[in-house]
Amino acid sequence: MPEKIKEAVEKIIKDESLRNEFLKDPTSTVEKLIGVDLPNDQIDAVIKQIKDAISQKGVDSIIDKIKNTVGIK
Predict the structure, then answer these.
(1) CA dist 28 to 59, 64, 72, Å?
(2) pLDDT at 66 (0 to 100)
(3) Residue with the larger pLDDT of the pair 69 and 54
(4) What is d(CA 46, CA 67) in angstroms, rounded to the nearest whole number?
(5) What own/partner pairs with CB < 8 Å and gap ≥ 24 does 57-60 have?
(6) Would you call 46 exposed, middle or buried from its count of C-beta atoms within 10 A (0-12, 13-18, 19+)?
(7) pLDDT, tens digit (0-9, with 9 covering 90-100), for 12-30
(8) Domain parsing of the chain, residue ranges
(9) For position 73, what pLDDT does the model report?
(10) pLDDT tens for residues 27-67?
(11) Are 35 and 56 in contact (CB under 8 A)?
(12) Which pLDDT score, from 0 to 100, does residue 42 have?
C-alpha cells in the first residue's frame, strides 16, 4: 500500500471528525488527505483500499481485545 494511503488510513482511524467526513464524502476527503485530484477510476480504487484497511484494523482491534480478555498473547 503506497505511503500516502497508509497515512490517510491512520489519520482517518485516529480522527473521529475526519472519519465522519470520509463516511459522508470519501472522494473529497481522500483527495484532500493525499493532496492529489485523481480520476474517478483511480480514486475509487484508493477509497476501496482505505475502506479495506480500516475494516482490517477494526477486526484486528477486536481480535486483540478478545485475546486480552481471555489472556491469550
Answers:
(1) 26, 32, 41
(2) 72
(3) 54
(4) 31
(5) 57/9, 57/13
(6) buried
(7) 988 989 989 999 999 999 9
(8) 3-70
(9) 67
(10) 999 999 988 898 989 999 999 988 888 888 776 776 776 77
(11) no
(12) 92
Q: How far apart are CA 23 and CA 16, in angstroms?
A: 10
How many whole angstroms separate alpha carbon 62 and alpha carbon 37? Answer: 34
Amino acid, single-letter form, for residue 55: S
The answer to whether residues 1 and 53 touch, using CB atoms and an 8 Å cutoff, is: yes
Q: What is the pLDDT of residue 24?
A: 94
Q: Which residues of 11-42 are buried (b: 16+ CB within 10 A; e: fewer)?
A: ebbeeeebeebbeeebeebbbebbeeeeeeee
Phi and psi, residue 54, nearest 5°: -65, -45
CA distances from 33 to 20, 52, 53, 56, 73 (A): 14, 17, 16, 20, 35
The C-alpha atoms of residue 13 and residue 30 are separated, in whole angstroms, by 13
